[in-house]
Specification:
Strand content: 15-25%
Helix content: 25-40%
Strand order of the largest sheet: 3-2-1-4-5-7-6
Shape: globular
Radius of gyration: 15 Å
Order of helices and strands: HHHEHEHEHEHEHEE
Number of domains: 1
Oligomer: single chain
Mean pLDDT: 86
CATH class: Alpha Beta
Number of strands: 7
Number of helices: 8
CATH superfamily: Vaccinia Virus protein VP39
Largest sheet: 7 strands, mixed
CATH topology: Rossmann fold
Length: 195
């Protein structure tokens, strides 16, 4: 996706006023616009399924949290990076209903009640141990969906392997977006009877 294509995609979704903010959240990423393609797939999913609450594990520079808020969800974003506190200073108000928590997910997730949010996005540390802990907690906390990023990334094969080991009833794979549709892959799980 080049800059012009990115602007067209943002305009289609009515997000053109937030282009500078979304691009600024990606200034340290390479390739520059690839994460936006993944972010827009995430945004579209949340809008299509009218998801109103999201817990995000791993925010990095905040793009997915911003997009979830713009999709109409209240967001709890957990990332070990102190950058969360910087984001919190600037992204406040009615449009950005985001609670930024700068902490290790392995310490915070066990404290969150089961069924607390409709969806959980897991995109934190990619080692097998942390991925397993984040996915297990995500399956416990989410009422409807668990979205796991980096499931088609050759640099992080443990994420997909752990995910496949952890899927159990009442959860099932709803959608698997390969690298071509959501850079580095996105697997979406749905809970049977989830509401």
């Amino acid at each position: 996706m080049n800059l012009q294509q990115a602007l067209v995609e943002l305009r289609k979704r009515g997000l053109q006023d937030y282009a500078a903010l979304l691009f600024a959240s990606q200034v340290r990423r390479e390739p520059f616009l690839a994460p936006l393609k993944y972010g827009l797939a995430y945004y579209d999913f949340l809008r299509e399924h009218r998801v109103k609450s999201v817990l995000e594990v791993g925010s990095f520079h905040g793009m997915t949290a911003i997009l979830a808020a713009l999709a109409g969800a209240e967001v709890i974003s957990i990332d070990i990076s102190p950058f969360q506190q910087e984001l919190a200073k600037y992204l406040t108000g009615d449009c950005f209903r985001i609670l930024w928590i700068a902490a290790d997910s392995r310490e915070v997730l066990p404290l969150i009640a089961s069924g607390r949010v409709e969806a959980v996005l897991v995109d934190g540390a990619h080692d097998a141990s942390t991925a397993r802990a984040d996915i297990r907690e995500g399956l416990r906390i989410a009422r409807r969906f668990v979205l796991v990023h980096d499931t088609d990334n050759p640099k992080t094969p443990s994420v997909r392997a752990v995910l496949l080991q952890e899927i159990k009833e009442p959860w099932r794979v709803k959608v698997e977006l390969p690298h071509s549709q959501a850079p580095w892959g996105l697997t979406i799980l749905e809970k049977a009877g989830g509401s």
